[in-house]
Amino acid sequence: MTKQYETVIGLEVHIELATKTKIFCGCSTEFGGTPNTHTCPVCTGMPGSLPVLNKQVVEYAMALGLVTNCRITQVCKFDRKNYFYPDNPQNYQISQLYLPIARDGYVEIEAGNGKKKVRIHEMHMEEDAGKLVHDEWDDTSLVDYNRSGVPLVEIVSEPDMRSADEVIAYLEKLRMIAQYLGVSDCKLQEGSMRADVNLSVREVGAETFGTRTEMKNLNSFKAIAHAIEGERTRQIELLDAGKEVVQETRRWDDNKEHSYAMRSKEDAQDYRYFPEPDLVPIVISDEWIAEVKARQPELRTEKLERYKKEFDIPRYDAEIITESKKMADVFEETTAACGKPKKVANWLMVETLRLMKDHGMEAEDLAFSPVNLAKLIDLVDAGTINSSVAKKVFEKIFTDDVDPEKYVEEKGLKMVNDEGALKETIDKVIASNPQAVADYKGGKEKALGALMGQTMRAMKGKANPGIVTQMLKEMLQD
Ligand SMILES: [Zn+2]
Known about the structure:
With 478 residues, the chain is α+β, with helices and mostly antiparallel strands.
């Protein structure tokens, strides 16, 4: 009988904090930019430079810890993690090992078999490294220190997940929390959220864990799901062949759908951690914790409650809209501008989600002005454009944020309600489709649809469909 295996997964998630400046200096944290322009002696590791801790980083980390049910470490400190790598100019990273900012929390996820808690072992603050660029030159690598010193929180989970679905649900939950708190935009494609996956397999019923491997810096949910499936299969094949899994760090190549060994897994002792001598310990008072708690913005559960009272939209709609903070913001601003919450909800849940999928976008990338969607809804309600034209106009709002009033005017998209113009067109359609006319008169209701379609096409989609149907019926009675 073949053996049954269980997958055991723990995650280390790095979230880049959305502070204006870096963790230990005043340089900008803005993504991209000309290489090595957001830099100074501190974040390029110049001798004699000294770090100064950004208070906002501590508060963002505390906010994350509190919402995920962690204990805040009220005397915490930084440690040096020593290693050489060209993207790390100090030859050490300022991180936290002994007294991380938060510990022992959990988040609740929903995947497959219902609700489940994923425990958080700890959360620590640290600085990001620079970026090496290898691709464009054969024999040269370049280094960009703009990202060096951007603040990160690393969230280390317990090995509580058992499938790719649970991992994705956990990441989505963390992302939602961070976005609602406003502490990070969590864009996977820009690297402001990254996950390292620790995975092992064991026979079902086994008490101890198998040997784990770590896969680093996976930057899309799809890559994470593929990497988990690929690594699980690889480990099971090794065990079934009587071989051993080696503890190591592996890199997943999503194009080749294959992982390969990078290095044998290092332990904490390999980094020669020691307390960071240039920074004093951080003392967090009860008052400070209370302050951060009091400043906590409205989270999803509270939003759902408020939507029920304030907007009277179905729970289902509210849940979809509040899945991301950004979408909820668009909903609230559009509703404020037009006062029609259910219609706004429909545009977001149907057309907006469809276009996001087509363009491979996430809610965070939505860039159109809520006021333009509000105007579009008003144009439809006023009978100025019909709903199929409205969908086309919305595509332009979605991609180019056009003002729908101007756009409809310029492109001549107003609905034709003029019965004279319609009568002329319908006459022509009736004259050139004798078969459909005969079918309709013979009792085939469907034939009306064909004639209707012809008329709408002849009117370039701008006719008022209600009036066309009514006029067709009348004119076919003769
Ligand atoms: Zn700097």
